[in-house]
Design a protein that fits this description.
By secondary structure, the chain is mainly α. The protein has one domain. Helix content is about 60%, strand content about 5%. It is built from four helices and two strands; from the N terminus they run βααβαα. It has a two-stranded parallel sheet with strand order 1-2. α2 packs across α3. The protein is globular and about 30 Å long. The N and C termini lie far apart (about 50 Å).
Length: about 100
């Protein structure tokens, strides 16, 4: 599937900021999910909204705040797509 050039550049920048041991899996998961979302819109091109949706749908809650910070640093305007829809619930443990 084709990718919007600016979206691809932002994604590459964001991936480069992710800790090394998470980069490959993050990239693989987000690429696949973003393309699925774009196809679901009947689009021939992956756009920013698809990548943003992919990140918000698949990121584990312990990495949520880091993802939002990296999206800001990489130029993704997730707010214009209605994200974050809800903050992930914090995990509570009892002793």
């Amino acid at each position: 599937m084709n990718w919007d050039i600016k979206t691809q550049e932002k994604l590459n920048l964001m991936i480069s900021k992710i800790p090394v041991f998470h980069r490959r899996i993050t990239e693989a998961v987000v690429l696949k999910k973003a393309e699925e979302i774009a196809a679901g819109r009947a689009s021939a091109q992956v756009e920013e909204m698809d990548v943003v949706s992919a990140f918000f749908s698949d990121v584990p809650s312990p990495f949520y705040s880091m993802m939002v910070r990296l999206m800001d640093q990489s130029g993704f305007d997730y707010r214009k797509y209605g994200f974050p829809k809800a903050q992930p619930a914090e995990t509570k443990t009892s002793l």
